[in-house]
Amino acid sequence: MMRATLNRWRRRLARALLYRVVFGERSQGRPLAYTRISPAACIEHEDRLVLGDHVYIGPFNLIEASGGITIGDGVQITSHCSLVTHASHRSQRLLGEGYVNWPTSQPRPGWIAGPIAIGPYSFIGPHALIEAGTTLGRGTLVCAGSFVRGEYPDFAILEGQPARIVGDTRRADARLLEQYPALRPLYEAWAGATRA
């Protein structure tokens, strides 16, 4: 009984001190008053990560930005997602032990690398993988567990492994705007006057 109480308090203290997400970040020297990044997110090569404001990066995400990642305003990356700008597994299989000694002046055979760009007000669901060389248009919805590689248009709903377009977010947005017509100017400010 005492151990359970102690563990519960220890978890509460760790959550309050270590895993609290707070507003206010910087990207490329620019202050972002409304961007929030969980302390439980792992960001590699942060100097190559360009963030917009109002971005949310939740807990337990891996952001590997060696090839450059641009995340637009208002993007939400939920939890347990991976954004990776390179893949070395083909090179390692081809080169074996020679992988570590390969001359840096020559590209490694099989190496895949490329930047990632995520358009404004997109949503990345839990356990999604965004691979090197991917561009997502604004207002994109990536469903949970999807593996995304390639270029996708604005307002795409992506689902699957590999991800494919299964819908258009503007359809759901149109229904919501019928319920909340006063919000149309705010929506059109970022999305433009769009039709589903």
Q: Can you describe what's shown?
A:
This protein has helices at about 1-20, 90-95, 170-180, 185-190, and strands at about 25, 30-35, 40-45, 50, 55, 60-65, 70, 75, 80-85, 85, 110-115, 115-120, 125, 130, 135, 140, 145-150, 150, 155-160, 165-170. It is of the alpha/beta class and about 200 residues long. It has a single domain, classed as Hexapeptide repeat proteins (UDP N-Acetylglucosamine Acyltransferase, domain 1), CATH 2.160.10. It has an eight-stranded mixed sheet. A five-stranded parallel sheet has the order 3-6-9-14-17, with no helix packed on it. It starts with a helix and ends in a 5-residue tail after the last helix.
Strand order of the largest sheet: 1-2-5-8-13-16-19-20
Biggest sheet layout: 8 strands, mixed
- Annotated CATH homologous superfamily: Hexapeptide repeat proteins
Unreliable residue runs:
none
CATH class: Mainly Beta
Q: What's the CATH topology label?
A: UDP N-Acetylglucosamine Acyltransferase, domain 1
Average pLDDT score: 91
How many helix segments?
4
Helix content: 10-25%
Describe the secondary-structure layout.
Layout lengths: L1 H17 L4 E5 L2 E8 L4 E3 L4 E3 L4 E2 L4 E3 L4 E3 L4 E2 L4 E3 L1 E2 L1 H7 L16 E2 L2 E3 L4 E2 L4 E2 L4 E2 L4 E2 L4 E2 L2 E2 L3 E5 L2 E6 H11 L4 H8 L5
Parallel strand pairs: 2-5, 3-6, 4-7, 5-8, 6-9, 7-12, 8-13, 9-14, 12-15, 13-16, 14-17, 15-18, 16-19
Antiparallel strand pairs: 1-2, 10-11, 19-20
Write out key terms for the chains shown.
about 200 residues; about 20% helix; about 30% strand; UDP N-Acetylglucosamine Acyltransferase, domain 1; five-stranded parallel β-sheet; alpha/beta; globular; eight-stranded mixed β-sheet
